[in-house]
Amino acid sequence: MEQSSYVKTTFQDTIATIEFFHSASNSFPSSQLAELTNAINNLNTNTAVRVIILKSAGDKAFCAGASFDELLSVSNLEEGGQFFSGFANVINAMRKSNKIIIGRIHGKTVGGGVGLAAACDYTFATTKALIKLSELAIGIGPFVIEPAVSRKIGKPALAEMTLDAENWKSAQWAFDNKLFTQLFDDAGTMDEALEKFATRLSSYNPEALYEMKKVLWEGTENWDVLLKERAAVSGKLVLSDFTVNALNAFKQK
Fold it and tell me: Which residues contact 170 (CB under 8 A, 6 or more apart)?
């Protein structure tokens, strides 16, 4: 019987690959966000691992963001804050990881999925990896992931993307704005390049890689508090009649 969701970690030499899957376009319920956070944190004590590859399963969407079903089930401020803290916890785990994290983005990416891509240290993507921040269209905003996204693409590009909440941005746009580091026409070519890059990177001095990781994330030390505050903002907005009606309308499309 095929699993409807999972997070699994596999190892090849000094490279760990974390793969996530959900039958609803690789979207995330809170339980799976916790699994992903734990998977990233658990690798911190594994001295044999030098590089992490983050990917999702399948050949369609990379990540459809938060689970709409769970968003609709939020009934109070505490539940709302807890749900959005799930993405905050993943981003903070990626930020504080002592490994370089390479993202493999093979398909469309929405909302929280854009945050995951932004929290990677280096990203490989295909031209099918369109991106969208649709949060404003459902009455909330990309508040939790904004610091990670802005860190990569800057506030002007964030505004362009966020305010045009119902339209996709191309993978080329994401590449031009530094969300994607390398861009490929197909997954096969991407995977070949990714394997070579990860293998080469994992051959470097692990202490030097960790020191470089700390340099890359300088100035983000307040994110434990900041992202929790942002989760509370989203948790409040998701209770509004506007958002409940918008989510139901999206589900019926």
Answer: 127, 130
Q: Given a cut of 90, is residue 253 above it in pLDDT? A: no
Tokens representing 213 are: 């990781």
Residue 94 CB contacts under 8 Å (≥ 6 apart), including other chains: 40, 54, 101, 116, 119, 120
Burial code (b: 16+ CB inside 10 Å, e: under 16) for 227-239 equals: bbebbbbbbebbe
pLDDT tens, 7-43?
999 999 999 999 999 999 999 999 999 999 999 999 9
Share of residues in the chain with pLDDT > 70 (%):
98
pTM of the model: 0.95
Using alpha carbons, list the distances in angstroms from residue 157 to 87, 111, 175, 217, 223.
21, 15, 12, 20, 21
Distance CA 160, CA 158 (A): 5
What is the b/e burial string over 145-172, where b = at least 16 CB atoms within 10 angstroms of the residue's CB? bbbbbbbbbeeebbeebbeeeeeebebe
With beta carbons less than 8 A apart as the criterion, state whether 177 and 157 touch. yes
pLDDT digits (tens, 9 = 90+) for 82-113: 999 999 999 999 999 999 999 999 999 999 99
Q: In what order do the strands lie in the sheet with 182-184?
A: 5-12, 15-22, 51-56, 100-105, 122-126, 182-184
- Which residue in 138, 120, 129 sits closest to 168, CA to CA? 129
The β-bridge partners of 17 are 10, 53
